[in-house]
Design brief:
2 domains; 275 residues; mainly alpha
């Protein structure tokens, strides 16, 4: 079997597997709904909106959602200390993460203990806030930013460099979160190489063992190209198997959750890909 045929078969097996599950409500139409790229909301039309979206994506890393989001009631509430998310204002107001965290504690009174050791969650997120402001401030307008992203997105060879650049520019935003931010902006040529995709792709030989996020990204894009679908489509198909989360359909399983089928799918697909 050629590599391209193997990619197409892996994609077809993923759809076949989901439909074969004994779960009421999982139909071809339901699966296709999740594979179609549709932006939940219009992309930000200002630098403030882009900056805020970066901070929302960044707080999804590791323990940040629980520690940061819950402590202040969501990213929206940072507006009062972040000059309504104006990056130039943030740069002018805070010289260090310590001064920013002092203001957050004074104005927002976050719930829970605030640890100030450099590698603790709050200091790390404050560094993200400041570095993201410096990054966004490089652009004159939202249109200027989108023109830059579009330029990278048009070239298959350059596209993977974009999340790498975001990871280099913004503290605490790695390659995967950079991809997630770009998807949230409405770019369907990106894929978030999370643990589910990594486990499935490495186990099925679709990418190398111990592959980096960059290598997993490239593998998902390759499978998508060979299956004639968008990277978002391929990403979401394998993610549904790994996460078991039909997040828009509470009638499926237990409030949209059917449990992970990653291990079973890997066994199912392995035997068929070896034929």
């Amino acid at each position: 079997m050629t590599p391209a045929k193997r990619d197409r078969k892996a994609y077809a097996l993923a759809k076949e597997y989901l439909l074969a599950l004994d779960v009421d409500g999982i139909t071809p139409e339901l699966i296709e709904k999740y594979l179609r790229f549709s932006q939940a909301q219009p992309r930000p039309d200002s630098l403030a909106g882009i900056y805020k979206l970066i901070l929302q994506s960044a707080q999804e890393a590791n323990m940040r959602t629980g520690v940061i989001g819950k402590a202040v009631g969501g990213v929206d509430n940072f507006a009062v200390v972040l000059c309504d998310f104006q990056p130039f204002g943030v740069i002018g107001r805070y010289a260090t993460w310590e001064s920013l965290l002092d203001e957050i504690q004074r104005r927002l009174k976050p719930k829970g203990k605030i640890r100030r050791t450099p590698r603790s969650v709050w200091p790390q997120y404050c560094r993200t806030i400041l570095s993201a402001a410096r990054f966004v401030a490089q652009f004159s307008t939202a249109d200027d930013f989108y023109e830059w992203v579009d330029l990278c997105d048009r070239d298959d060879r350059v596209r993977p460099a974009l999340p790498m650049l975001l990871a280099a520019e913004i503290d605490g935003v790695g390659f995967a979160l950079g991809c997630n931010f770009l998807i949230d902006l409405g770019y369907s040529n990106f894929t978030k190489p999370d643990v589910h995709l990594r486990d499935i792709f490495t186990s099925l030989g679709l990418c190398a063992p111990k592959a980096s996020d960059y290598q997993v990204f490239k593998a998902v894009v390759r499978v998508a190209r060979n299956a004639n679908v968008t990277p978002y489509d391929a990403d979401k198909l394998f993610w549904l198997i790994g996460s078991g989360h039909f997040f828009d359909d509470d009638q499926i399983g237990d409030k949209g959750r059917i449990g992970s089928h990653k291990t079973d799918f890997i066994a199912y697909a392995k035997s068929r890909l070896s034929v």
